[in-house]
Amino acid sequence: MTAASRRQFLGLFGGLAALGLHQAQANGRAGLRFGPTTGFTPETVTARARNLAVSAYVPPPSVSTAWRNLSYDTFRGIWYDTRQALYRDHPSSVQAEFFVAGLFFRHKIGLHAVEGGQSREVQFDLANFDTTDTFPDLPAEGTGFAGFRVLGETEAQGRFQEYAVFQGASYFRAIGRGQAYGISSRGLALNTAGSGPEEFPIFREFWIEAAAPDASAVTIHALLDSPSVAGAYRFDIRKGDVTEMTVSARLFPRAQLNSVGIGSGTSMFLFNNINHFRFDDFREAVHDSDGLLMLNGMGETIWRPLNNPKNIETSIFVDSAPRGFGLMQRARKPGDYNDLSAHYDRRPSLWVEPLGDWGKGAVMLIEIPTDKEINDNIVAFWRPQSPLFAGTEYQFDYRLHWCATAPVEGAVAPVIATRTGARVFEDGRLFTVDYAPHPALGDDPARIEARVSTSRGAISSPIVQHNPATGGMRLDFTLKGDPNETELRAELWRDGRPAAEVWLNRWISR
After folding, report:
1. Does residue 383 lie in a domain region?
2. Where are the alpha helices (DSSP H) in 96-233?
């Protein structure tokens, strides 16, 4: 799947009697219909995944050609009737609305409602969707469910608003209170930037649990499947200013997996002040994320500004027992973008917090060239050092924070801007790194030691100065020798201790 198609399909996100599950009729429609009751526990999904892994892969049912061939604009002309939302007429603190399959979403998936240890399948009914007058009359049997969105009382009591979406392969997105959708995650990345074609596992079934009336969290189970692996996922989603997802993933490889991505984030970076010269655009910046933040197993806090390269670039940050990583959106003022409609200042950061020891591996960052903001061109994830072998069970637990700032920020001064340009009166390239005000830096630049290094070329004249515009400090240095490609590293120390995030950057002159 190309970067362009990723962004396009993500852009479409946008009792029942004895069970206690009941869906009332609305507007003369029959309402939701359900299959027979079956017992359910979290092990139900695990057993399904384990059984799938020892069988040949069979993809979910495909939608018909007519539904696949809809245009993007036409497909936007069908949407779910909110009056038919799952748990709408039920004392649950969560509701769910569904998406129809078609266009980019070419497989029908299964959806189930769970309450009191009992599950019932939600049966697809095209009558529960509304359309524009120009939407074609297509047969209901040619389509089915493609995913769903989760709604809760995030802003005001009695008003249910969307805060999470599961749709397309194993992709999903979430927002905290007051945020706008941007970065997405996925259940598993396979062979991303690997030697062979990328594989996209599918969440082929979901189980959505009813939540207590005053609950702030909802539990969702998912069955993952692909030619190479099956998996059982549990998402405990807690809404709020920060939406937290505690994820438990149990994987059952069908084949040896040499290139696995855990905690994957997919985002967009077009330009900011480091590469604005390449774009004829009135705005100051265009991006869903502007940097990769890492807290490695040694306790170093590392900031890597994102780039929009001319060729695909892969960066590998080797680590052991990582404490966290994620794609961050640090520019938070509307004036940072000068865009009154896209609301990039409200896009969430996504911090991945491993639960337990993930062992040896690497944080991977893939940067893909793009000339349009509709393309998701940034991917970051954890890759275990050792392959995952067929016939063996693996478990990865982690917590996703859809947030404005990562929970680990604050111990040292964060990087807030990176700029570069040719020197005017001497050879070389000037780099400036701005840091936010922070007690670790103090207010006397003379007490700060700058440690700057490069893998090629030479570093000249590192200087730390107070920046009156930000109230923090600025590091200036010059890269000499004009290397075509080099890895840069800068650290600020004060009184024998790190005072700021470690700044890393890959400079490519070609």
Report:
1. no
2. none
- Enter the pTM of the model: 0.93
Least Cα distance to 207 among 185, 227, 224 occurs for 224
pLDDT at residue number 22: 40
Residue stretches of the chain with pLDDT short of 50? 1-6, 9-10, 13-29
Range of the domain at 423: 415-508
At residue 30, the pLDDT reads: 56
Are 294 and 328 in contact by the 8 Å Cβ rule? The answer is no
Q: What is the DSSP string of 353-407?
A: EEES---EEEEEEEE---SSTTS--EEEEEEESSPBPTT--EEEEEEEEEESS-T
Q: Token pair 């749709």 is at which residue?
A: 167
Per-residue model confidence (pLDDT) at position 4 = 43
Closest CA to 53 of 410, 394, 452, 290: 394
Looking at 223, 238, 269, the residue that finishes a domain is 223
Element (H, E) at 46: helix 42-53
What distance separates the 2 farthest-apart alpha carbons in the chain?
A: 81
What CATH number is given to the structural domain containing 119? 2.70.98.10
- The domain total for the chain is 2
- Phi and psi for 55 in degrees, rounded to 5? -120, 160
Q: Which two tokens stand for residue 362?
A: 């690497």
At residue 7, the pLDDT reads 52
Choose among 125, 381, 416, 135: nearest CA to 264: 381
pLDDT at 17: 34
d(CA 290, CA 284): 13
Domain membership flag for residue 435:
yes
Quote the tokens at residue 24.
Answer: 């009332």
| Nearest alpha-carbon partner for 353 in 266, 501, 247 | 247
User: Which residues are 12's β-sheet partners?
Assistant: none
What three-state secondary structure class fits 255? coil
